Request: fold
Amino acid sequence: MPTPLANMLREAWQDMDRATASLPRQDAERRVGTASPIGWSVAHVTNQLDGYVNVRFRGEEAHPYIGQYQLRFGARGESGNWSEVQEAVTEVREQAWAYVEHLTDGDLRREVPYDGSISVLRQQGVVSVRYGLTRVILHHYFHLGEIVAIRNALGHDVGEYPGMLEGCL
Reply:
């Protein structure tokens, strides 16, 4: 049975998917004001998921699309093709879930070396699996708020967020 933290990650994905459901390609790929395109934001949070779970925790190579520098913090925030983003996100999530769904509380305490872009974490030198997953979940919800605001500005009715979070309680 997945841990509450694993279930919260799945809830974050469900909320992200609900917020982007029926999103027209042209709206996913364009900027609204100064915000990054929705497609970039979805790929960006998945870049972090891939970096923590599949690369750091599992020791795999980064996904060829999602692992691109242009999807990281500090990049220009240019959107790629929405259907390519959606396909790549599905692949990264499936790979990550195959690992995350079987984690135990002991596994969540495991520490791995950290050499990423967050200076305070680089100074610390390691992150726990629990910390990494928590950071990924919070990052999803940060960008989810941005996505919902953009969709509301475009006149789309996408509901209220976050969802009930019932699966993680």
Observations:
- The radius of gyration is 16 Å.
- The longest strand covers residues 111-113.
